Amino acid sequence: MLLEAVYHRPRLNWSYAYDENTIHLRLRAKKGDLTEVYAWAGDKYAWDTTKELIPMTLFTSDAMFDYWECESVPPHRRLKYGFLLQKDHERIWMTENDFQTERPNNPNRLFEFPYINRGDVFAPPAWVKDAVFYQIFPERFANGDPNLSPEKVEPWGGTPTPTNFFGGDLQGVIDHLDYLEGLGITGIYFTPVFSGTTNHKYDTEDYMKVDPHFGDTETLKKLVEACHARGIRVLLDAVFNHSGRTFAPFVDVLEKGEASRYKDWFHIREFPLQVTDGYPTYDAFAFEPLMPKLNTENPEVKQYLLEIAEYWIRETGIDGWRLDVANEVDHEFWRDFRKVVKRANPQAYILGEIWHESAPWLEGDKFDAVMNYPFTDAVLDFFVNDSLDAEGFANSIGKQLSRYPLQASEVAFNLLDSHDTPRLLTLAGGDKKKLKLAALFQFTFMGTPCIYYGDEIGMDGEGDPGCRKCMEWDPAKQDLELFAYYRTLIDIRNSHPALRTGTFTFLEAQRQGSKLAYERRLGEDVVVVLVNTEETAQTFRVNVEEVHWENVLTGDSLRTERGNLAVKLPAYGSAVLKAIF
To answer: What is the CATH number of the domain that holds 19?
Structure first.
């Protein structure tokens, strides 16, 4: 038993309240080392009458470690606990301070979950688990009101550049809500809609004003109301890490220098404000002079931005915020941001843009979720880039699941491309078979999936600006078969609670393998997904308990023989099997 690999701490993803009554405990061990693990738990004030051994299950693994998990519903919302580790006949007890061969005499030196205080429970909005998001870049989705278009607007469908405009606006989105509803979309994430000088609007000029090329506040209200009437939630982009160069306080600093009352609203290293050898004399997003970094620790800046966050929720009824460059803003700002937003709308979804491991932001006091780019990387590497085998993919997904509390994984924002990346079809080299397999995993995995506008009809494009083409509205130029496939994935996801909130278990993911099998389970809703990423047919033999199955993609019936489910899949084929009871 390699005790050096065993790890637990009483916080974060290792010991947390899943709800107001339930505590989840996790323990890490060397991969394949332990055969059984138990939590030894009870109430610290009534230890002798409440202590019990709770079996832990192996809930996920990565390349080096197994992660064991159990849940406890303590009668008095508090828990003292240790662990019993077993490798065949070897037994070791783990306390807060050490490992020992004998059972501890009393609970005094065990780990402790002191109390489930309701205010400490991390509770993301439940609706997100069931949502299917669609990302819209407003300037490129649809031109609904040509009267709003910029003076030098170009004909719809032209070649995008970093600086040109095609006249997309909010009315254009309203005009195509029937299309989104028909696809099955229940959430829209908009890149910024507030006034700015660029086509992407990440250089905010006025946080209180909808960009006049998009419409006005009344148009935004009309859009939100129309979305809500169709059961579609609306998420706006909060660009609070930085403003634009034309933001009035920054203009004041440009004009007045050190005499400006707004000089402390920004991170200025020296005056005058200028760009020397490509580097501005003030902090900015990625050294971009057009995007000066805001000093969110300044009380005036903080109050201003928090009022903005609350205003648009109350004024238009939006359902949450996506937070741009969220990891570069101080944590205390986000703690107060959460309080303000949740007071305005307790069910608002707070989504941070973070491209790396994000546990510090997912403790229940800041974000509900992050844009799940580690998920994106793993899916692309396995299904699209062929740079990861099945075992490596399972390890990557396992590591990601181990990092966060379950409630954070259930509402993770799972994307495969965006306005910041090449499009999925381009990454797949135009191979729609690969695109479909990647999308299948996205829609059958834990978390909320997001489609980047146009992916569902076969739009392609390299990185910015190529990924920001105008939406194609000519049916003759749309891939309607691909649209139907996405519609089917959404229907399947909506039909099976197990795909949204069930357990996730890999059934097959071998080293150097190109076959993937995994199970989603919630009560009697059991779904097994099989994926063949090889360019030749392969046969799956998966050990399952249930006898009768139906492939929901084809309607075919299958039967387990001697405990094994045998399924032959063609090259780049897949099956979604539901158990029939």
So the answer is: 2.60.40.10
Report the pLDDT value the prediction gives residue 106, as an integer from 0 to 100.
86
Same domain, 279 and 397: no
Residue 333 shares a structural domain with residue 191: yes
Residues 488 and 349 reside in one and the same domain = yes
Same domain, 233 and 253: no
Is the domain of 185 the same as that of 280? no
Write the DSSP assignment of 321-341 as a string of letters: EEETTGGGS-HHHHHHHHHHH
> Rounded to whole angstroms, how far apart are CA atoms 340 and 111?
34
Q: Which of 43, 66, 205, 324 is catalytic?
A: 324
Do the strands 187-190 and 233-238 form a parallel or antiparallel pair, or are they unpaired?
A: parallel
Give the residue-averaged pLDDT of 403-427.
Answer: 98
The answer to whether 549 and 579 are in contact (CB under 8 A) is yes
The answer to whether residue 353 is catalytic is yes
If asked whether residues 406 and 433 sit together in one domain, one would say yes
Q: What is the pTM of this model?
A: 0.96
Structural domain that includes position 531: 498-580
Report residue 105's pLDDT band, with 50, 70 and 90 as the boundaries.
confident
Q: What is the pLDDT of residues 438-485, one digit of tens each?
A: 999 999 999 999 999 999 999 999 999 999 999 999 999 999 999 999
Rg (the chain; Cα; Å): 26
CA distances 284 to 237, 280, 355, 410, 576, Å, are 18, 7, 19, 34, 47
For residue 157, the tally of other CB atoms under 10 A from its CB is 15
| Average pLDDT value for the chain | 97
496 confidence band (pLDDT: 50, 70, 90): very high
Structure tokens at 21: 């009554």
Total tally of structural domains belonging to the chain: 4
The pLDDT > 90 percentage for the chain reads 99
Share of the chain above pLDDT 70, in %: 100
55-88 pLDDT, tens digit per residue, is 999 999 999 999 999 999 999 999 999 999 999 9
Largest Cα–Cα distance in the chain?
82
Q: Which of 43, 62, 66, 353 is catalytic?
A: 353
d(CA 427, CA 457): 16
Instruction: Kindly report the CATH number assigned to the domain that includes residue 236.
Output: 3.20.20.80
**Which CATH number do you get for residue 261?**
3.90.400.10
Please name the amino acid found at residue 210: V
In a shared domain, residues 351 and 490: yes
Told to judge if 545 belongs to the known catalytic residues of this protein, a careful annotator would answer no
